[in-house]
Inverse folding.
């Protein structure tokens, strides 16, 4: 059986990745519809060897569809997802618009697949940084229980979008052309005074680290950090789990990394036991041989489907603590792949 599928926001970074994942995983697509804004009208994207023309997003564009994969921003999702759902389309939305709606399941197939079947037409795709963390936390929670999580993220510029990727490239090009091994103080002055450079992030990102992802909210936390707190509780059905995040943008093109400290409720006998628990988990690959410089790297994990974990070690400051290094491709498992996996889950039942 084939399915009629739309990708909303098809010309964006995640939209293009959705098309790639649908093709690579041989999702049974009978018809593909590419929907985007007026400025993308007439553009053509490749899918299974054919050039498909992009259509302007409209209510009529959802007629006769089975699935609509949304990655066009929260305001678009708020307006068009209910329209699609009323037409009988299952919407899988990558924005933050529906994630904390109590009537909308927030799903990571390796963690809470049963929630996908409780949908009322809309299923939310979690935040990229949350997805990769909970995929690793799930087997630990099942085996030992989890009391507390402290996470620091190192998030690539593609998590913001193409404009942030362009900003990084422009700054790097500017540095190469205008600053030959200049000291940090001079580099800072040159970047901040440069005219004509893209600036969508609050500060220069080249050779920098910005502890500022999305807008600042209550208690000095950013919206990205609150997403990690609230989404983790909802996905894992653990309202009492304590999550303390700090989210940082780093000059990496693609793939997010996270330093995660976990306080377990029950003791583990050895690190070998923990590694076996993680190695047996669906969607998790353990890369942990630090003596031979083997651990997950953002550059190496780009384009991969799994969530990778390494630097697995005891936290000696608490009775049952672990430190983990978690890496995943934010455009794939953190967005496009997770959405397609949700659709696969629904058609496999």
């Amino acid at each position: 059986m084939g399915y009629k599928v739309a990708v909303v926001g098809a010309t964006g970074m995640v939209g293009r990745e959705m098309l790639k994942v649908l093709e690579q995983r041989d999702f049974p697509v009978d018809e593909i519809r590419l929907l985007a804004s007026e400025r993308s009208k007439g553009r053509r994207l490749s899918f299974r060897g054919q050039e498909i023309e992009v259509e302007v997003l409209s209510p009529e564009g959802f007629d006769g569809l089975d699935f609509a994969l949304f990655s066009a921003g929260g305001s678009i999702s708020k307006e068009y997802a209910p329209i699609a759902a009323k037409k009988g389309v299952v919407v899988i939305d990558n924005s933050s618009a529906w994630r904390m709606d109590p009537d909308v399941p927030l799903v990571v197939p390796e963690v809470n697949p049963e929630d996908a079947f409780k949908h009322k037409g809309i299923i939310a795709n979690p935040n990229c940084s949350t997805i990769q963390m909970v995929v690793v936390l799930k087997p630990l929670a099942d085996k030992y229980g989890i009391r507390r999580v402290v996470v620091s993220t190192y998030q690539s510029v593609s998590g913001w979008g193409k404009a942030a990727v362009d900003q990084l490239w422009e700054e790097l090009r500017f540095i190469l052309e205008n600053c030959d091994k200049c000291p940090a103080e001079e580099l800072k002055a040159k970047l901040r005074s440069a005219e004509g450079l893209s600036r969508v992030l609050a500060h220069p990102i080249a050779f920098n680290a910005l502890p500022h992802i999305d807008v600042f909210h209550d208690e000095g936390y950013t919206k990205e950090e609150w997403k990690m707190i609230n989404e983790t509780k909802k996905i894992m059905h653990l309202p009492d789990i304590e999550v303390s995040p700090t989210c940082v943008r780093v000059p990496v093109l693609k793939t997010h990394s996270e330093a995660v400290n976990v306080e377990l409720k029950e003791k583990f006998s050895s690190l070998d036991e923990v590694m076996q628990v993680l190695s047996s988990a669906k969607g998790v690959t353990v890369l942990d041989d630090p003596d031979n410089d083997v651990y997950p790297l953002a550059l190496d994990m780009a384009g991969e489907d799994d969530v990778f974990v390494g630097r697995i070690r005891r936290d000696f400051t608490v009775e049952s603590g672990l430190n983990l290094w978690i890496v995943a491709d934010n455009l794939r498992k953190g967005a496009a792949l997770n959405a397609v996996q949700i659709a696969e889950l629904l058609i496999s039942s």
DSSP finds nine helices and 13 strands in the chain.
